[in-house]
Write a structure and sequence with these properties.
Elements: H1 2-28, E1 32-34, E2 40-42, H2 43-52, E3 58-61, H3 90-97, E4 99-103, E5 107-111, E6 116-118, E7 121-122, H4 123-126, H5 128-153, E8 160-164, E9 176-181, E10 187-193, E11 199-204, E12 216-222, E13 226-227
Parallel strand pairs: 8-9
Antiparallel strand pairs: 1-2, 3-4, 4-5, 5-6, 6-7, 9-10, 10-11, 11-12, 12-13
Protein name: Putative secreted protein
Keywords: Signal
Organism: Herbinix luporum
Length: about 230
Amino acid sequence: MKRKISLLMVIVMMLSFTTGVFADSFEQEKLVITLEDGTKVSEREFIEILESYEGEIYKISSETNILYDDNILEEPINNLQTRSTMAMPMDDVMKIMAGTWYIPGVGKVVVTLGGIYVGGVVLSKVSSWIANKVKSWLIARAEAKEYESAKEKGTKTKNHSTETGSRLNKTGKKYSSKDLKDKNGKLKQRRYYDKNGNAELDIDYSHGGVGHKFPHRHYWKKPGKVRD
């Protein structure tokens, strides 16, 4: 009986020691990211900074060399080739976003097929959670930029579709556009759907009535509900 108790105590002590070592290792692996101005933040603080940032982001190189140090910025990512990421393999997502990015106040973010680098730290090797957060943030910003650019120019978004009938739905896929054509294939209307999938803008190319100049625009005062 004493042997059984002693053995049980040994097992408990071993488990406690292992748990302590694991906890220490976990604490040591917490990510610290250095921002452009030298400020050090935790991974959660870094994500909060990204998600609250509303300025421009710039793609400064299609290369993924983390030593890239050119101070000349190219244009914002209005013309970035993006597509819906639903059910898209992460490898495809990384191919779309690959390159060196500059985020004012944050610094350079390098996206490669192997991971994401911030300040020389490989995020995916430290925390897959933060790597996926950064990828999702970059993709969302790219989709929003592409959508706003297409809406301003009146062109098709990357996520575009066509429908034949009398009217378009008030809701659709987020950051998308849809054309309404008549039975003869003539374009009647192009509708844009915002980040929530609600109708935001219509460009009318033809409809009944007199005194109308085509094309003309109608903005939805309450997206998906009330049109001007």
